[in-house]
Amino acid sequence: MSMKHSKRSAWSRSTTSKIDILAVAALSCLVLCQCAKHSDQKEDELYIRDSERQWAESVASGDASVVERILANDFIGVDPDGRIYDKAKMISDTREGPKFFASNHLNEVKIRFYGDTAVAQGSESWERRTGERGRFVWTDTWLRRNGRWEIVAAEDLTVPEPGAVLPQQ
Known about the structure:
By secondary structure, this protein is of the alpha+beta class. The chain has 3 helices and 6 strands, in the order ααββαββββ. The chain has helices spanning about 1-60, 65-70, 85-95; strands at about 70-80, 85, 100-115, 115-130, 135-145, 150-160. β5 (about 135-145) and β6 (about 150-160) form a beta hairpin. The longest helix has about 60 residues, at about 1-60. It is elongated and about 80 Å long. Mean pLDDT is about 85; it is low at about 30-35.
């Protein structure tokens, strides 16, 4: 009888030990996967933030390669006057931008992720060649397709710089 008890006890300890090892391994994998996901999201956020900065600067530099890279082929945007534009129009406008803009710089951007979608909201400060100054405030919708982030929609507003004196009406 004591032999049966010791065999069962040894089997029980062995099984419990294996279950403990499997549980620790599963928990470790879960933690590592979450860390990798968090790391990937940080990389994605850096890519989107840098791309938004490059797009802002392209308004004054005329570098359309940025726009060609980050806008989806089916991109649709809404300009500050409420007009719809597509990728081809944005590429054309970017090439013409230096005629009108002396500078354009990203002020801030907040990025939120929803799976393979990211919403970037931010503002840029610009100065026209005429000396007029203002800001763009915008929302861009990014989508990850085939492992690549691209903007599928954008909406822009033009607002005065903070502290600017507005004409009285």
